[in-house]
Write a structure and sequence with these properties.
By secondary structure, this protein is mainly beta. It has 1 helix and 10 strands; from the N terminus they run E-E-E-H-E-E-E-E-E-E-E. Helix content is about 5%, strand content about 35%. It has a 7-stranded mixed sheet with strand order 6-7-8-9-4-3-10. Strand 8 and strand 9 form a beta hairpin.
Protein backbone atom coordinates (compact mmCIF):
# COMPACT_ATOMS: atom_id res chain seq x y z
CA UNK A 1 0.00 0.00 0.00
CA UNK A 2 1.45 3.37 -1.00
CA UNK A 3 1.40 6.37 1.27
CA UNK A 4 -0.71 9.41 0.45
CA UNK A 5 1.62 12.28 -0.51
CA UNK A 6 1.91 15.17 1.93
CA UNK A 7 2.93 18.62 0.66
CA UNK A 8 3.72 21.74 2.68
CA UNK A 9 3.44 25.41 1.92
CA UNK A 10 2.87 28.86 3.32
CA UNK A 11 3.04 32.58 2.83
CA UNK A 12 6.03 34.83 2.16
CA UNK A 13 6.42 36.10 5.75
CA UNK A 14 5.95 32.68 7.39
CA UNK A 15 2.91 33.66 9.48
CA UNK A 16 0.78 31.03 7.75
CA UNK A 17 1.74 27.42 7.04
CA UNK A 18 -0.33 24.56 5.69
CA UNK A 19 -0.15 20.98 4.61
CA UNK A 20 -2.11 19.41 1.82
CA UNK A 21 -2.56 15.65 1.65
CA UNK A 22 -3.14 13.75 -1.54
CA UNK A 23 -1.96 13.60 -5.09
CA UNK A 24 -2.23 16.72 -7.20
CA UNK A 25 -5.05 16.33 -9.69
CA UNK A 26 -3.72 18.97 -12.10
CA UNK A 27 -2.04 22.36 -12.27
CA UNK A 28 -3.44 25.16 -14.43
CA UNK A 29 -1.89 28.48 -15.37
CA UNK A 30 -4.77 30.98 -15.08
CA UNK A 31 -4.87 34.23 -17.05
CA UNK A 32 -8.22 35.52 -15.75
CA UNK A 33 -8.53 39.14 -14.72
CA UNK A 34 -9.60 38.17 -11.19
CA UNK A 35 -6.42 36.15 -10.58
CA UNK A 36 -4.28 38.93 -12.06
CA UNK A 37 -5.84 41.59 -9.83
CA UNK A 38 -5.76 39.42 -6.69
CA UNK A 39 -2.09 38.48 -7.17
CA UNK A 40 -0.57 41.45 -8.97
CA UNK A 41 0.91 38.96 -11.46
CA UNK A 42 0.17 38.49 -15.18
CA UNK A 43 -1.03 34.92 -14.52
CA UNK A 44 -1.28 32.52 -11.56
CA UNK A 45 -0.62 28.79 -11.34
CA UNK A 46 -3.16 26.82 -9.28
CA UNK A 47 -2.71 23.20 -8.24
CA UNK A 48 -5.88 21.21 -7.68
CA UNK A 49 -6.04 18.70 -4.84
CA UNK A 50 -8.89 16.53 -3.54
CA UNK A 51 -11.53 18.37 -1.47
CA UNK A 52 -10.84 18.92 2.23
CA UNK A 53 -7.21 17.90 1.76
CA UNK A 54 -5.73 21.14 3.15
CA UNK A 55 -5.06 21.81 6.83
CA UNK A 56 -3.72 25.06 8.25
CA UNK A 57 -0.82 24.20 10.58
CA UNK A 58 0.19 27.71 11.63
CA UNK A 59 -1.86 30.87 11.60
CA UNK A 60 -5.08 31.37 9.69
CA UNK A 61 -5.62 33.18 6.41
CA UNK A 62 -7.87 36.10 5.79
CA UNK A 63 -10.68 35.51 3.30
CA UNK A 64 -12.32 37.74 0.77
CA UNK A 65 -15.52 36.78 -1.03
CA UNK A 66 -15.78 37.89 -4.61
CA UNK A 67 -18.49 36.74 -7.03
CA UNK A 68 -19.42 33.88 -4.65
CA UNK A 69 -15.83 32.63 -4.67
CA UNK A 70 -13.43 32.80 -1.75
CA UNK A 71 -9.78 33.83 -1.96
CA UNK A 72 -7.61 33.15 1.09
CA UNK A 73 -4.45 35.13 1.71
CA UNK A 74 -2.05 36.16 4.46
CA UNK A 75 -3.28 39.33 6.14
CA UNK A 76 0.33 40.27 7.03
CA UNK A 77 2.20 39.88 3.71
CA UNK A 78 -0.67 39.51 1.24
CA UNK A 79 0.44 36.18 -0.24
CA UNK A 80 -2.45 34.51 -2.10
CA UNK A 81 -2.90 30.96 -0.79
CA UNK A 82 -6.20 29.29 -1.64
CA UNK A 83 -9.10 29.67 -4.03
CA UNK A 84 -12.50 28.16 -3.31
CA UNK A 85 -15.27 28.02 -5.89
CA UNK A 86 -18.61 26.57 -4.71
CA UNK A 87 -19.27 25.56 -8.33
CA UNK A 88 -16.21 23.24 -8.14
CA UNK A 89 -16.53 21.46 -4.77
CA UNK A 90 -14.48 18.52 -6.05
CA UNK A 91 -11.28 20.61 -5.83
CA UNK A 92 -9.11 22.39 -3.29
CA UNK A 93 -7.22 24.99 -5.33
CA UNK A 94 -3.83 25.88 -3.87
CA UNK A 95 -1.66 28.70 -5.20
CA UNK A 96 1.15 26.60 -6.71
CA UNK A 97 3.90 29.05 -5.81
CA UNK A 98 2.86 29.04 -2.14
CA UNK A 99 3.88 25.36 -2.01
CA UNK A 100 7.39 24.72 -0.66
CA UNK A 101 8.28 22.84 -3.87
CA UNK A 102 6.35 24.54 -6.69
CA UNK A 103 8.67 23.01 -9.30
CA UNK A 104 7.04 19.64 -8.54
CA UNK A 105 3.73 20.91 -9.97
CA UNK A 106 4.27 22.11 -13.55
CA UNK A 107 1.18 23.46 -15.30
CA UNK A 108 -0.53 21.08 -17.67
CA UNK A 109 -2.72 23.75 -19.27
CA UNK A 110 -3.50 27.45 -19.48
CA UNK A 111 -7.01 28.65 -18.76
CA UNK A 112 -8.90 31.88 -19.25
CA UNK A 113 -6.65 32.72 -22.20
CA UNK A 114 -9.43 35.04 -23.42
CA UNK A 115 -8.29 37.39 -20.60
CA UNK A 116 -4.56 36.95 -21.28
CA UNK A 117 -2.49 40.15 -21.43
CA UNK A 118 -1.29 40.42 -25.05
CA UNK A 119 2.36 41.06 -24.12
CA UNK A 120 2.55 37.63 -22.45
CA UNK A 121 3.20 36.21 -25.94
CA UNK A 122 6.56 38.03 -26.06
CA UNK A 123 7.81 36.69 -22.71
CA UNK A 124 9.74 33.69 -24.16
CA UNK A 125 11.78 36.02 -26.38
CA UNK A 126 12.80 38.48 -23.62
CA UNK A 127 16.44 38.57 -22.42
CA UNK A 128 17.08 36.39 -19.36
CA UNK A 129 19.36 37.19 -16.40
CA UNK A 130 20.57 34.78 -13.72
CA UNK A 131 19.58 37.21 -10.94
CA UNK A 132 18.35 40.81 -11.17
CA UNK A 133 18.20 42.58 -14.51
CA UNK A 134 20.61 45.48 -15.13
CA UNK A 135 19.14 48.82 -14.24
CA UNK A 136 19.19 51.67 -16.76
CA UNK A 137 22.07 54.08 -16.27
CA UNK A 138 21.36 57.81 -16.10
CA UNK A 139 23.31 59.69 -18.74
Amino acid sequence: MSEIPLHHGGCLCGAIRYEVRGPAMQTSFCHCEDCRKASGAPAVAWTFFPPNSLRWTQGAPREIRFAERIRSFCADCGSPLLFTDPALPQFTEVNTCSLDDPAAFPPGDQCWVADEIPWMHSVPSLPRFELTSPLPVDE
